[in-house]
């Protein structure tokens, strides 16, 4: 097991095309998102998709909305003409997600509130009048999440929240490594190494699921690779959806520091413990103990598993790591 890599292959991320500035909205406008186009763009490969223009609705076009047809089944209808686009969109979406599967996506960013792309709380209009509910999911977003249940998917609006943004970015890079593992040499030893390298990451998200994932790893030699890799992936991505907290980070940091006690002198040990405590009590950002930990692991060594921790370098530092840890 080598040291964790500090260079990152670019993940492939699907995106609602209007978020990259393509003028494909119903009115010919766009929703260019600065975080996606400025900060994230240099680190990823985009796969832009616009369901409404790709299905042939044209731009500009009549706006559409989700309508509850009475039995809970959602229809995609023109706002003025009530033209029903549901079947066309459903059949296009089922083909498009198959195509996307062939590209090997590692994440997806969708446009909020869209009856095609919206992920959460999209407006649903009752067919016969009455109150509008915010209970819908865009038709394409629904097909996407059904086809790729483990894929990290977010809306651009939620990426304004530093904790959700950090969580999404971290999940994308974890998912990318898991996909490489799944499609790799199919060796139980590779799964053991993967799980070991993600120990601190999982502890910082969901300690109980770290142990559950360990039980899957223990069965790696006894069951088929595809079954085990998928089962592990399900636990892994469920764990990664749980947000980190200062308490869980502190546990992970103290766990790491404990394995350096024989390689650090008393002064370095005290300095690291103090940095962790200052972070725990909100007096220092996470970068303080993390930077020290990186330094000691690089300089003093410590056990091999510690140098291999993805926790030390979860994603490229320029992707707002400062914000991540001070949040
Ligand atoms: S929200 Fe989706 S369907 Fe609407 S313009 Fe953007 S990409 Fe196209």
The proportion of residues forming helix, as a percent range, comes to 40-55%
Low-confidence stretches: none
* SSE pattern, N- to C-terminal: EHEHEEHEEEHEHHHHHHHHHH
Please tell me how large the radius of gyration is: 22 Å
The total count of helices amounts to: 14
Write out the strand line-up for the largest beta sheet, numbering strands in chain order.
2-1-5-8
User: Could you say which small molecules are bound to this protein?
Assistant: iron/sulfur cluster
Q: What overall form do the CA principal axes indicate? A: elongated
Cα separation of the termini: 32 Å
What percentage of the residues does DSSP assign to strands (E)?
5-15%
For the biggest sheet, the summary is: 4 strands, parallel
Structural class: alpha/beta
Assembly type of the shown chains?
single chain
SS elements, strand count? 8
- Overall number of domains: 2
Mean pLDDT: 94
Distinctive features:
single chain; 327 residues; alpha/beta; 2 domains; four-stranded parallel beta sheet; four-stranded mixed beta sheet; 14 helices; 8 strands; elongated; binds iron/sulfur cluster
Polypeptide structure, described:
With about 325 residues, the protein is of the alpha/beta class. It has two domains: about 10-160, no CATH class; about 160-325, no CATH class. About 50% of the residues lie in helices and about 10% in strands. It has a four-stranded parallel β-sheet. A four-stranded mixed β-sheet has the order 4-3-6-7, with no helix packed on it. The longest helix is centred in the middle third of the chain and has 21 residues, at about 160-180. The two termini are about 30 Å apart. The mean pLDDT is about 95. The site of iron/sulfur cluster has 13 residues, from helix 2. The site of iron/sulfur cluster (SF4) has 13 residues, from helix 2.
